[in-house]
């Protein structure tokens, strides 16, 4: 890395962050669809342990700032709102989408989120679409139709549950991004997301009583869970945020579109998930739409 320019380092770090996010989805797919673990257990424990580790790391780095977000009553309320209405919804719906489809399809469908964000600003904030934004919407809708129908309009190619949770996860992603803007700009992404994950994880753990080790939780399940927590949260956020600092949010968001591609590749290589031509074609349309949108 020392031999690379700052821009090249940023590209590599952002690419690794997106790759680790994709790998995390495959870890979740293994736990949910191969090991058949309870989805509530995975969601609550992923949030709790990811948030806990992030807070510990931040405390070791700068313990004076770790509780800063709670110094303001308004920000504390905003954090709780983000934790339960943004992050929890985003994470829960994503893993439910994986349960009823697979990591690649769930990740691609979640990438409809930026279009929902754009729609929010168009209709709620009265910021109307430009030509490239309309093109992005059209391409993404075409991609979604291809994935869902495989051009057979008499029946769905994925389950109704998979489609529901996939679209819901896109809404969750949009909500997550909108609710986090002010807090992240003030306190940073790691601190905001770390506390939101920990707080939502604690509450979900208490209400679902998920403080237990599942039956038949072996070494493979442990490795998959570590991938979800370590690679899918801590390393992915660390690499991606450092990369964005070096190359900017626009270029970073475009490179982040590699996440669903990584999820598809890892899903095929590691657990043998099957994707056909229509799945790849639909994913391509959606990702091109997101790239066009991010180049605005």
What would your notes on this structure say?
The chain is mostly helical and 296 residues long. The protein is 79% helix and 0% strand. It has 12 helices and no strands. The protein is globular, with a radius of gyration of 19 Å. The two termini are 30 Å apart. The mean pLDDT is 85.
Name its key features.
0% strand; 296 residues
Provide the β-strand percentage band: under 5%
Sheet with the most strands, sense and barrel status: none
| Tally of DSSP β-strands | 0
Head-to-tail CA distance between termini: 30 Å
- Shape verdict: globular
Mean pLDDT: 85
Rg for CA atoms: 19 Å
N-to-C order of helices and strands: HHHHHHHHHHHH
**SSE class:** mainly alpha
Helix content: over 70%
- In the predicted model, the low-confidence regions spanning at least 5 consecutive residues are none
Quickly count the helices.
12
Chart the SSEs and their pairings.
Elements: H1 6-34, H2 39-61, H3 73-100, H4 103-110, H5 113-123, H6 131-149, H7 160-187, H8 189-208, H9 219-247, H10 249-255, H11 258-271, H12 277-294
In short:
This protein is 79% helix and 0% strand.
């Amino acid at each position: 890395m020392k031999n690379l320019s700052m821009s090249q380092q940023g590209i590599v770090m952002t690419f690794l962050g997106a790759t680790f996010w994709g790998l995390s989805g495959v870890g979740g797919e293994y736990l949910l669809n191969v090991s058949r673990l309870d989805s509530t257990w995975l969601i609550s424990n992923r949030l709790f342990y990811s948030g806990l580790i992030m807070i510990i790391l931040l405390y070791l780095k700068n313990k004076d700032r770790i509780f800063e977000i709670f110094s303001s009553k308004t920000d504390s309320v905003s954090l709780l709102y983000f934790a339960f209405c943004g992050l929890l919804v985003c994470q829960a719906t994503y893993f439910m989408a994986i349960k009823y489809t697979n990591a690649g399809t769930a990740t691609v469908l979640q990438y409809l989120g930026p279009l929902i964000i754009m729609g929010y600003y168009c209709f709620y904030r009265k910021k109307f679409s430009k030509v490239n934004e309309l093109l992005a919407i059209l391409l993404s809708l075409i991609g979604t139709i291809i994935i869902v129908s495989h051009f057979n309009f008499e029946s769905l190619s994925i389950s109704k549950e998979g489609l529901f949770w996939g679209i819901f996860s896109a809404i969750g992603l949009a909500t997550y991004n909108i609710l986090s803007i002010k807090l992240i700009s003030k306190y940073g992404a790691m601190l905001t997301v770390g506390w939101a994950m920990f707080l939502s994880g604690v509450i979900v753990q208490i209400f679902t009583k998920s403080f237990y080790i599942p039956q038949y939780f072996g070494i493979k399940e442990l490795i998959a869970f570590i991938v979800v927590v370590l690679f899918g949260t801590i390393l992915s956020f660390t690499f991606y945020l450092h990369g964005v600092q070096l190359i900017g949010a626009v270029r970073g968001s475009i490179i982040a579109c590699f996440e669903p591609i990584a999820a598809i590749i890892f899903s095929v290589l590691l657990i043998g998930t099957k994707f056909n031509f229509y799945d790849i074609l639909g994913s391509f349309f959606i990702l091109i739409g997101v790239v066009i949108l991010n180049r605005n």
